[in-house]
Amino acid sequence: MNGTLTTSGWVDVLQTLPVMLAGLKYTAVISVTSMLASLVIGLLVTAMRLSSHASLRVLAFAYVQLFRAFSTYVYILFIYFGLAAFFKINMPPVEAAILALSLLNSAYVSEIYRSAIVNTDHGLHEAAVCTGLTRGQAFMHATLPQAARIALPSLVNQFVVVLRDSSIVGVIGVADIMFVASKAASVRYLQFEYYTAVACVFVLLVFAISKVGDYFERKLAPP
């Protein structure tokens, strides 16, 4: 009965677990691909933000503000329904979800990069230039390692945000773990059991991501 916890309800969840874990593959692919794309796009936007050309700085600033202005839900619907209709293309739901999450999170990643670079010890950069390195080489060998250590905790947190936001991609028909659980919960009237199971899966994923982030943070720590 709805609203009543029973052992059979949890048994039902366990029986559906293989299907839910199959949906978890979509969650993993979308989250990881979106984060990797965000890292690349964010780096390009950061380079534009720090450029000596005013037009590039203005364009990058507008990009960041645009993709920080609205919710993930709005962007996913806009890209899957609005953008696809405008350009008359048939965009698959998974690709639409990855595109939306990549563009949205790249704006936040670019700000993480920019903040990390600004807060590095610029004296080390200048010292590297004085040893005969070009400014590009000095950036790669002196500034970038510092920036990576500074940015890593925030980038790990941003990956958690990407993972969390991926839970709404079912709104455009992606059969991720949340989509599968929602359908099963509605049919079987076991909302508490199914949503609790999904919540536990996400807690475990976030815990794993945090532990991996801690490991790399220790590896990047100066001796």
Mean pLDDT: 86
Task: List segments where confidence is low: pLDDT < 50 over at least 5 consecutive residues.
Answer: none
Number of domains: 1
Distance between the first and last residues' Cα: 60 Å
Q: How helical, in percent, are the residues?
A: over 70%
Class per helix and strand makeup: mainly alpha
Tally of helical runs:
8
Element pattern in H and E: HHHHHHHH
**What overall geometry do the principal axes of the alpha carbons give?**
flat
**What is the strand content?**
under 5%
CATH class: Mainly Alpha
Using the CA coordinates, give the radius of gyration: 21 Å
Here the CATH topology equals MetI-like fold
Number of strands: 0
Main β sheet profile: none
Give the name of the CATH architecture: Orthogonal Bundle
Q: How would you sum up this structure in a few lines?
A:
With 223 residues, the protein is an all-alpha fold.
